[in-house]
Amino acid sequence: MNPPPPRPTRSDALDNRARILAAATEAFSASGSGSAGAPTGASSGGASTSTSMTSIAKSAGVGVGTLYRHFPTRESLIVELYRQEIQKLIDLAHTLAGSLPPLVALRRWFEEVAHYGRLKYGVAEVIHAATNGGLDDEHYDPFLGAITVLLDAGAAEGTLKSGTDPEDVLLQLSVLWRIPPGNGDQERAARILDLVVDGLRTRPPESS
After folding, report:
1. What are the pLDDT tens digits along the chain (208 aa)?
2. Which residue, 64, 114, 146, 170, is most buried by CB atoms nearer than 10 A?
3. Which CATH superfamily is domain 10-200 in?
């Protein structure tokens, strides 16, 4: 009689979860449906159905049953991807603020926010529903804090305006969540970021 197969270890489960999330991020990005929603809870359309749970499981090298044990629904997978991507952005803001000149750090972070916007396009309604329209989003205040860190560094250096409300900046950045993938989306995002950064810069007094 053959012995039963060994039970998966906690390490195996964690590895499977990580591979599922990585595969889902790649799949949603490639399909243009996105991996997460905006921390403002803004809606930008329904979740695409072009990426199936079965295809994600196949890309991750796990069985469909394994995927559903970790994420019982497509929505639960999207919400977890959202949490992962938002936390990366929050952490990155602090890293950039401590290692780069303020204007460079701000622009670099905004570029990552734009990349995040391309990942999340099409699934904001899922996050909107999961966070009660953004009211129950645990990442909202930390995300505002990340913006504040970058703004304060620039204000202290004198290259960014002081007293800028981080929520105003977040509202400006929310435009990035609404840019449809393809057809020059990256170029459009870059132009929008130029406008946002230019509006945040300090300017020397005009000569009379």
Report:
1. 565 555 556 788 889 999 999 998 888 766 554 434 445 433 333 344 457 899 999 999 999 999 999 999 988 998 898 888 889 999 999 999 999 999 999 999 999 988 887 766 666 667 677 776 666 788 889 999 999 999 999 999 999 999 999 999 999 998 888 887 778 888 999 999 999 999 999 976 555 4
2. 146
3. Tetracycline Repressor, domain 2 (1.10.357.10)
This model's pTM is above 0.85: no
Any idea which residue has 């989003």 for tokens?
137
Give φ, ψ of 88 to 5 degrees: -60, -45
SS3 assignment, position 175: helix
Nearest Cα residue to 33 out of 202, 182, 193:
182
